[in-house]
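Case study.
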Amino acid sequence: MRTNPSPDQSELAAELRIAVGRLHRRLRHQRGTVDLPDHLVAVLGLLHRAGPQAPGALAEHECVRPPQMTRSVNQLVESGFAVKTPHPEDGRQVVVEITETGRSQLIELRRRRDEWLDAELSTLDESERTTLEQAAHILQRMAGGR
Amino acid sequence: MRTNPSPDQSELAAELRIAVGRLHRRLRHQRGTVDLPDHLVAVLGLLHRAGPQAPGALAEHECVRPPQMTRSVNQLVESGFAVKTPHPEDGRQVVVEITETGRSQLIELRRRRDEWLDAELSTLDESERTTLEQAAHILQRMAGGR
DNA sequence: TATTGTTATACTCTATAACTATA
DNA sequence: TATAGTTATAGAGTATAACAATA
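After joint prediction, the assembly is written out as follows.
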């Protein structure tokens, strides 16, 4: 590996896929039992950043099918972290909004949840962290764009 | 974002977690129906790169529990991509080895499976690809090291 | 008694298909 | 008839607990 300064793109794709899959499992394995699962935190974060939205839009953003987003939203509502209100003009639509409880919970969750990741990041040097920061933005753009 | 050349580490952890989760879902969503699932390809790749190993070692490397690795290995064996042989000295242990069929299948799988990822990578510039290549190695080290 | 692997069971996340209500 | 959301159902992947075989 690393034989070429202009790496073969298929090899990069394979490496990325494996790295992402492995870290994803590791993160899930590492998380505490009391916390919200990853996908709910992702939805909560999206509501926090991007504001009130319809379930369909949330589903598209998070790359899941509408039925799954229905369940995720319902779990957030049951936990008091989000509310569903009917759309004022279109009776078919629903608007999902984060609550104040959800907002403060999100901050607290993130602080408690990233202990392992923080520790791992601490073992890296500054340039490696910078690389990961840039990579995170590129990956988010690749996965979330369109 | 990107307001700070020395980014806050907790923020980086959150960004990484979200990026990895989202890309993981996107990749799963994007993959063809005839292919082996990600986790089997990962095991096959590990057997290809690191040679014959016991299921326990595979499980630790891939961050899954032994029962899950038992199933993954059995699926690979049923498909003819790996073989299980008894350990020559320790009757409790099993040695898992990739077959020639598995090896050639792995190459072909990767080529066919990464179409979406390849296309996305093609839209990046050279420096972004270099960033991702370095990040892939760092992430693999973080997830697989220990 | 400790270790390696497996079987049994259950839970989480996800998808597709069918259904309801509104436009 | 088309669209937004939901319900019903099924499947994949994973975990924990209990078990079997060997050391």
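Observations recorded in class. The first strand of chain B starts at residue 82 and ends at 86. Strands of chain B lie at 82-86, 94-98. We will return to this complex in the next lecture.
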